[in-house]
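debug: dumping io for the single-chain case to check the tokenizer round-trip. Nothing else runs in this session.
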Amino acid sequence: MQKTPHIPVLYREVVEAFSPCKEGIVIDCTMGYGGHTSLLLENNSKLSLIGIDQDPTAIAFSSKRLEPFGNRVEIRRGRFSEVAHEAIIEKGEKICGILADIGVSSLQLDQRERGFSYESDTLDMRMNPDAPLSAREVVNEYSQSALETILREYGEVTNARKVAETIVHRRPFASAKELSNAIFHLMPKGKKIHPSTLVMQAIRIEVNDELGELTRLLDAIERSTIKTLRVAIITFHSLEDRIVKNRFTIWGKNCICPDDAMRCTCGNKNAIGKVITKKPLIAQADELRANSRSRSAKLRIFEIRRD
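debug: decoded output
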């Protein structure tokens, strides 16, 4: 792999996922620093890539990194659900695969000025630095009940009410580090992750509407008329994985009648393809040793085959 500030997770599995794509276009919905994109291009000279990202820093880096591939790469900036939808309409049957690596990149976590890390001196968390909503507004302006809902639903924080109450009582906060210190005593200890991680995750998901973006991408794929398509999605926590798993299950069902239906009335021909991964693919031992952040990554693959 080329030198990059971000190590792409499940890189072997991603290459294998798109091996049936002999030629055509793969949409990399979350191009980031070009790790997956460059690997796919290197492994198949007949593939072209549309890389999407909303982070100008990532786009600047990847534009330079992917220059050797020439016109085989087209980079577009924007929210991936919207840009992918436009690309699907524009390119149609030329598209043979869609990849999405959901979540924050290693470089975004490591750049403290971006405000993603619990050690950061800022409170931002925007993947698109031009977006109007940042973590500062969420933490300092949301109501206690709204914060409680976010923490419970997006972070699965068990004592969400107490944490939300503490945030409201102690605010305003100017940095992620300050926020982390204020709630540290309330968070469970002894796990592999930092105690504040789930709170930071919940706020980040709210700021970037990550679950909404994922759902809208799946909607766009479902509404498309592309007959043959490989869809591979990498998730990093149970909320995202559940959304992908449930949607793939629905896509693979012929009968969509209610469970309590006496007989099938839907026609029993509703499946648009099949689930390739009955269980999600996870990082192999050597990747876990080289990149600890890969431990939470799960890859699910679906193959669309429309009549």
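debug: round-trip ok. The two ends are 38 Å apart (CA to CA).
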